[in-house]
Structure prediction request, 139 residues.
Amino acid sequence: MTSTDNPSAPPAAPARVRSPLFSSLIGLAGLGILLQGVWAGLFIREGEKFHDNWVTVHSVGATVVDVLALIAVIVAFLQLRARRDVVVGTLVFLVLLILEGVFGGLISNHPDMQVVHFPLALLLMGMTAWLSLRASRRG
Prediction:
């Protein structure tokens, strides 16, 4: 018996679209954010000058994560446009990453920006987990 034979049966839910490419990009971005914390720990020393080599590694790492997030936004629009929660979440993730970079760039002249920069990094890490779970969830 199909759902058309039984008018009281609810219609079958459409299968949720998933993208292994999107999941990979978000996973790599999450790994990059985790490594950002490791690299920051190698150059942030209270009362000491920053170690320039690790600052450079941290900066390049941030650029890589930003590019991964931008590509994830494009993939979300192309492959997951039916998943509004994932598309909007990925856009918010990218905007927050850009803000994170701005705040990070201000830290050398305004050390108090760490109060915003560090928690925002943790929020971004959580967003990668949320986006991965939402994107992999079936209806």
